[in-house]
TrEMBL record:
Biased composition (Basic and acidic residues): 590-611
Record protein name field: ATP-binding cassette domain-containing protein
KW Oxidoreductase (keyword) present: no
Species this protein is from: Paenibacillus silvestris
Keywords, in A-Z order: ATP-binding, Cell membrane, Membrane, Nucleotide-binding, Transmembrane, Transmembrane helix, Transport
Highest taxon, organism lineage: Bacteria
Keyword check for Transmembrane helix: yes
Family annotation (SUPFAM superfamilies): ABC transporter transmembrane region (SSF90123), P-loop containing nucleoside triphosphate hydrolases (SSF52540)
Taxonomic lineage from the root: Bacteria, Bacillati, Bacillota, Bacilli, Bacillales
Disordered: annotated segments: 576-611
Length: 611
């Protein structure tokens, strides 16, 4: 019951509906007891005593009882439905809200399918139980109490005899539920594995086709389909075995009632009306016995679903605002980012970053280079305060970022990730995502800077083109350019480009960077790149290896040092130094807006390469 106590904040505001639903159902059940009594009266007092003039009055009573019972059932359905849906609505909102604020650490381990099933199947279980299940569970108890007490009041010996097979019925029903329940769970698992296969197949259809693995995929699906079929057949087998037994046991008590009761009527121990009343009351007892297993399981399942939902709702937020967190005002932000001796490890892992220090002056450009897994993205994650730094400090304008209000702090940062994620919406909405109030002119300006405007304009519906799931229908480079426009429109003080131009060709990269150099004015920029060409204009390049800084300096300084930077440079340019040289010149010539800083770097680079 602890689960329901913890869920109380979500259903207690609707307590009026809750009690009304229970009251209506209980009243309908109680009203149902009028039938057996009417039958008894009809047989013993009307038919046996030949008082047929009472029949119309009895008929009117029946009509009234049926109507009131119908009305009560309608009200129960209405209240239960509203209650369940309102509780599900509150819970769904609370869950979604929590999911937005859960830390990166949670998502590192969470599985999408599992989260989806909590938001759908588990929530549905709660909706059903709070709306109807709980009232039905109470009703089952009421039916048993009402039915038994009435039967015992009519004739306790007959009632006792009739009850003989009931424990067996209850036992079989519980056993049946114990078998059918896991079988249903297996069916659901099998269905989910089949749908996952279909989903994966549709998402990865290009990979399947390019590897000509259609036949393999068909076989894989057939195996899962076979499994699903087998699970369904097994569950129908259980159903087929248990139902006749339950039917026999239930009817055994009816046979006992009619046999013994009929004999008692002959013996004049009870009246015929009483026997008929008992016959109709017996279903008040058989029904709950039959459904006992189902109700018990429904209750335990809902408890499990509630626990899973509460697990999310009460999930610890690793990264959250301190009580006295300072709100960051954009107008006051300089953009000085400092890392002071930061050592950071992901949970249960060796440190991903050792003793990392950095002082990025406002408006400077910091390049991060290093092999895969060297810790570049970790630096950015810590900068965004995706994780809390425990060893060392990350500071914005001299203030530890842990003391800053998270939302206003992150509002100062715009990131373009290596893997571009676009929402299935229009290009316009995707670009405008980071800002609430934005004009079309600003969107176009950002798109132009990201070199996205031309290709967007060529689309039949331009900025109103709806991009498919995850940006399907656009090339990798086009997606990246939209993501860059999305970052630029935020007008951030800190710009992070995590391998942001990896999917565009060298020439476009030059063009975008020329655009960047314009927007980068006054912004502190972090660039992660594998291409030296993306980094060479940086004010400081930090070379990472296995989480440690192995080199740092400007491009020309690093070129003169033996080390990872020079090696990377050699691999990328050694066989075409002239080409690299020319690339710079071409790009510089093409873009008249290329700022002075870029030109200086380029000319410096040209001179270096010439020697
Ligand atoms: N969310 C995470 N949970 C646990 N370990 C992680 C996580 N992210 C990264 N790591 C580990 O931390 C180390 C540094 O990873 P990081 O992503 O910072 O490298 P990177 O230099 O950005 O690599 P790449 O160039 O491939 O993106 C790696 O050993 C990686 O396995």
């Amino acid at each position: 019951m602890d689960v329901f106590r913890r869920l109380k904040p979500y259903f207690w505001p609707e307590k009026k509906l809750f009690f009304l639903a229970i009251l209506c159902l209980a009243s309908a059940t109680a009203l149902g007891l009028v039938y057996p009594n009417l039958l008894r009266y009809l047989i013993d007092d009307v038919i046996a005593k030949k008082q047929f003039e009472l029949v119309p009055r009895l008929a009117i009573v029946v009509v009234i009882v049926v109507s009131v019972k119908g009305l009560l059932q309608f009200l129960h359905g209405l209240c239960g439905g509203r209650l369940g849906n309102r509780v599900a609505y509150h819970l769904r909102n609370a869950l979604y809200n929590k999911l937005q604020y859960l830390s990166f650490q949670y998502y590192d381990q969470a599985r999408t399918g599992d989260l989806m099933s909590r938001l759908t199947a588990d929530l549905e279980a709660i909706r059903q139980f709070i709306g109807f299940g709980f009232a039905q569970l109470l009703n089952v108890l009421l039916m048993l109490i009402f039915g038994m007490s009435m039967m015992f009041s009519i004739n306790w010996k007959l009632a006792l005899l009739t009850m003989i097979s009931m424990p067996f019925l209850a036992f079989t029903a519980i056993r049946f539920e114990g078998k059918i329940h896991p079988a249903f769970r297996m069916v659901r698992q099998s269905l989910s594995s089949m749908t996952t296969a279909v989903q994966e197949n549709i998402t990865g259809v290009r990979t399947v086709k390019s590897f000509a693995r259609e036949a393999h995929e068909v076989d894989k699906f057939s195996a899962r389909n076979e499994d699903y079929k087998a699970m369904n057949i097994e569950s129908s087998g259980i159903w087929a075995r248990y139902f006749p037994i339950m039917e026999i046991l239930a009817n055994l008590s009816v046979v006992m009632l009619l046999g013994v009761g009929g004999y008692m009527v002959i013996q004049n121990t009870i009246s015929l009306g009483e026997l008929v009343a008992c016959f109709s009351l017996i279903w008040y007892i058989i029904g709950p016995m039959w459904g006992l297993g189902f109700h018990i399981n429904n209750f335990t399942n809902t408890k499990a679903s509630g626990e899973k939902i509460l697990d999310i709702l009460h999930q610890y937020l690793h990264v959250k605002d301190q009580a006295d967190a300072t709100i960051v005002k954009s107008s006051e932000v300089q953009g000085n980012i400092r890392f002071d001796n930061v050592t950071f490890a992901y949970p249960e892992k060796q440190p991903a970053l050792y003793d990392f220090s950095l002082d990025a002056k406002p408006g400077s450009v910091i390049g991060l280079l290093g092999s895969t897994g060297s810790g570049k993205t970790t630096v950015i994650s810590l900068l965004m305060r995706a994780y809390n730094v425990k060893d060392g400090r990350v500071m914005l304008d001299g203030k530890d970022i842990r003391s800053l209000e998270l939302e206003s702090y992150r509002n100062q940062i715009a990131t373009v990730f290596q893997e571009t994620f676009l929402f299935s919406s229009t290009i316009l909405n995707n670009i405008a995502y980071g800002r609430k109030d934005v004009t079309m002119d600003e969107i176009i300006r950002a798109a132009k800077l990201a070199k996205a405007h031309d290709f967007i304009s060529e689309l039949p519906e331009g900025y109103d083109t709806v991009v498919g799931e995850r940006g399907l229908g656009l090339s990798g480079g086009q997606k990246q350019r939209i993501a860059i426009a999305r970052a630029l429109i935020k007008d951030p003080k800190i710009l992070v480009l995590d391998d942001a131009t990896s999917a565009v060709d060298m020439e476009t990269e030059h063009e975008i960077q020329a655009g960047f150099s314009e927007v980068m004015q006054g912004r502190t920029t972090f660039i992660i790149a594998h291409r030296i060409s993306s980094l060479k204009h940086a004010d400081e390049i930090i070379v990472l290896d296995k989480g440690r800084i192995v080199q740092r300096g400007k491009h020309h300084e690093l070129l003169h040092q033996d080390g990872l930077y020079r090696q990377t440079y050699d691999i990328q340019y050694a066989d075409q130094p002239k080409k690299a040289d020319q690339d710079d010149q071409v790009a510089a010539a093409k873009d008249p807006e290329l700022d002075a800083k870029t030109r200086n770097h380029s000319s410096l680079q040209e001179r270096r390469l010439a020697h």
